[in-house]
Amino acid sequence: MLSVYNANVWYGAIHAIKNVSFEVNEDEIVALIGANGAGKSTTLKTISGLLRSKTGSITFQGEDIAHTPADKLVAKGLAQVPEGRRVFLEMSVEENLEMGAYTQPKSTIAPGLERVYEQFPRLKERRRQVAGTLSGGEQQMLAMGRALMSNPKLLMLDEPSMGLAPILIEQIFQIIEDLHKAGTTILLVEQNAQMALSIATRGYVMETGNITLSGTGQELLHNDDVRRAYLGG
Ligand SMILES: Nc1ncnc2c1ncn2[C@@H]1O[C@H](COP(=O)(O)OP(=O)(O)OP(=O)(O)O)[C@@H](O)[C@H]1O
Q: Which one Pfam family would you cite for this protein (predicted)?
C-alpha cells in the first residue's frame, strides 16, 4: 500500500533520515520505533508531504506521491495524526472534527461525525466543548477522530501515547486495534516500544536516521538488542 524507498532528508546540515526504505502492506499495523531524535517524525512528515526527500521514491497505492501536496494526499486516503495532537484549541470538538473532512464532499460530514462519535463516545458527550479545555487523552482522541473524518485508507499516528497516563495509553492502543479491525491500515510511530510492538503486525527500528532492524512485532519484542535498548532489558 505504501512504499518508501531510499529516503534522505536534511534540516540544513543535519542529515535526519538516511537511505530509509520500508513498506506498509494493506491491513497491517506497522510500528516504527526508536529513541528521541532517531528520525521517526521526520519520516512521517516526509510521507505526508510536509518535508521532501532528496532521493528515492514514495508510492501510495501504486502512485508516486513524493511531490504531491499534503492536502491532496488526504484526499487520496492518507491521513496523519501529528505529534502533540495539534487540535484547534479555540474551536469546539465538533468544529475540529468538521475540519478533518475538508477534503471531502459536505455530504460526508454527518455520517463521518456519526462514525467518529460511535468510536469515541467521550467526544460525543463533549462535542460543544472548546478543545483547549479537553484533557490530554481527550485531545488525542480528538486528533484521531479528526483524521478519521477523511475516511483514510492509511492512518499515520505520531506518538499517540505521548504524555498520557498508563490507563489512557491502554485505551488509545485499544482504539488503534479497533480501527485496524475495522479495516484501516496503520503506520504507528512510538517511543513506547512495548505497546507498539505488542499490537504491530511488523515493525522497524530507527537509530540516528537509519533503519537498523525489522521483523514481525513478536520477533522484535523478543529480540535481545531491542529488549536491551527499548524495553528495559
Ligand atoms: N525543524 C528542524 N530543524 C533542525 N533539525 C531538526 C528539525 N526537526 C528535527 N530535527 C532533527 O532531526 C533529527 C530527527 O528528528 P525527529 O523529530 O525526526 O526524531 P524522532 O525520532 O521523531 O524523535 P522524537 O521521538 O523525539 O520525536 C533530530 O536530530 C532532530 O534534532
A: ABC_tran
DSSP code of residue 107: G
Residue ranges for the chain with pLDDT beneath 50: none
Q: Is the dihedral of CA 180, 182, 185, 188 positive or negative?
A: negative
Antiparallel, parallel or unpaired: β 185-190 and 29-34 = parallel
The answer to whether the CB of 94 falls within 8 A of the CB of 100 is no
Q: Specify the length of the chain in residues.
A: 233
Domains and CATH numbers, the chain: 2-77+152-230 (3.40.50.300), 86-143 (no CATH)
Query: What pLDDT shows up at residue 233?
Result: 66
Give the closest residue to 85 by CA, choosing from 171, 143, 165, 159: 143
Looking at residue 102, its pLDDT comes to: 83
Cα distance between residue 170 and residue 34, in whole Å: 20
CA 37 to ligand 1 centroid distance, Å: 5
Give the distance (Å) from ligand 1 centre to CA of residue 47: 15
What are the φ/ψ torsions at residue 4 (nearest 5 degrees)?
A: -105, 125
Ligand 1 within 6 A of CB of 36: yes
Residue 18's pLDDT is 97
Burial class of 176 by CB neighbour count within 10 A (0 to 12, 13 to 18, 19+)? buried
Residue 132 identity (one-letter amino acid): G
Per-residue confidence (pLDDT) for residue 86, from 0 to 100: 84
Predicted-complex ipTM score: 0.92
Residues paired with residue 17 on neighbouring β-strands, in sequence order: 9
Pick the atom of ligand 1 nearest to 209's CA: 14
DSSP 130: B
